[in-house]
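Long-time lurker. I teach an intro course on protein structure, and each term I like to show students one example going from raw sequence to a predicted 3D structure in token notation. This year I'd like something fresh instead of my usual example. Would anyone be willing to generate the tokens for the chain below so I can use it in lecture? Attribution to the forum is fine with me.
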Amino acid sequence: LILVILILSFLPRGKLGRYPPWPGKIVNPPKDLKKPRGKKCFFVKFFGTEDHAWIKVEQLKPYHLHKEEMIKINKGKRFQQAVDAVEEFLRKTKGKDQASSHNSSEEKNRHNSSEERGKQSAGEEKRKASLSEGKLKKGTGEGKKRVSSVSSERGSKSPLKRAQDQSPRKRGRPPKDEKDLTIPESSTVKRVMTGTVAGFKWPPSVSEPVKDSDPHFHHFLLSQTEKPAVCYQAITKKLKVCEEETGSTSIQAADSTAVNGSITPTDKKIGFLGLGLMGSGIVSNLLKMGHTVTVWNRTAEKCDLFIQEGARLGRTPAEVVSTCDITFACVSDPKAAKDLVLGPSGVLQGIRPGKCYVDMSTVDADTVTELAQVIVSRGGRFLEAPVSGNQQLSNDGMLVILAAGDRGLYEDCSSCFQAMGKTSFFLGEVGNAAKMMLIVNMVQGSFMATIAEGLTLAQVTGQSQQTLLDILNQGQLASIFLDQKCQNILQGNFKPDFYLKYIQKDLRLAIALGDSVNHPTPMAAAANEVYKRAKALDQSDNDMSAVYRAYIH
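-- Reply from a regular --
Happy to contribute to a lecture. Here you go:
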């Protein structure tokens, strides 16, 4: 067994950051997952994330030698959970080894005892046979030979056992009944871990059942032209792994499961409009996965960092659309989405037959339907693809993409969606994704308001807020979202991960969606009022968790 620390440091410092080290173990890849070309690498499973990636040899370091150093560097809770998972794995492995060693010792003692009894029995029979043979055939060695043959057979292993012992076992091949495949520390691996790369050979892989959907990124289809309760069907697409390892699925941050596995980028030219909290993370992941990206932002200075990382600069939205095959956009609200398309030098002026436009903004269904109509009227192709997540998940390439519209365009965006997210859903006709996204954010926003209400109630009744969080984290509501937002409140840190003003906007649009079909949304309406009060207290540009301040002022 080899435990490793990943030293992923080839990216320059800056907003894109460096990869922090992350503990993992070398495992055997699925049978049909090809090894990348180029530099030698191992297939690694990351502790605490259940993600996998091909990792270059020079980026692997021994776990025990670097453990303390890495713990000092990484203070995050998720990293500590990963370290705890490593230690638990080691304890279980040690326990199994000790049990195995104990069992083998007992077996050996039983075997030796049995062998000794066999020898004594053979000796007794030898004496009897010798006496018998001596009486029948004096002076011949035949009796001795016959007894020797019997004794030899009884003291040796059975033919089946001999065949099992002599059967060759390939280096690195673990028993088939092991759930977590690991590579034993062979001499080859020892050379790698001590820094010698020359002569390194990739150990043979082990066949492993491969699930229908890719383990790193999932596509889902929902046909709403049939029964609305139809199950999501996974598209069977196997992730192609190339040389550069990622952060899952996601290379931005290994401290958040960012290991999508590398992908093969599309050869289409990609454009991206809007470099806000979500757009910045998306573009960084597109670039890291090898896509050719042209960027534009209303505030041009935000483009500089991405230009340094290899992106091209577009002077206007129209120019980006006209020079790219597929152009994505992610802006704040319906008005911004319309202005981007219909305004001066906007998207519509660059649309030609065959040009593709993907709107990732969270807007209402009417807005996205209007944009689709004007794009298609110019011969363009349209897909709506709002994303569920926050800044951290965007940076980590772990967004959830909800798509609707042109099915063929959805397929063409496959490598882009894999770069920016962990899962994508295709929901049918234009407007469905907008509706679903508003419902998702309505639930999230209402939940956040309830969390804030509970924490303030705990405070005014003399209960510990930290204890409340500890209790919630041990129950059915436990989640990363709950823990992070409560920590924000307890620490008074409301640095935006999802702007409060945007979750209030989504609640407002969700309530309007309910009104359009005469469906009551009293919980969302109540939460919306709390967010409106928080906005009145100048919390708009803080994180959504700042809704807490609406209860204490």
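Some talking points for your students: The chain is about 45% helix and 10% strand. Confidence is low (pLDDT under 50) at residues 7-19, 130-216, 223-260.
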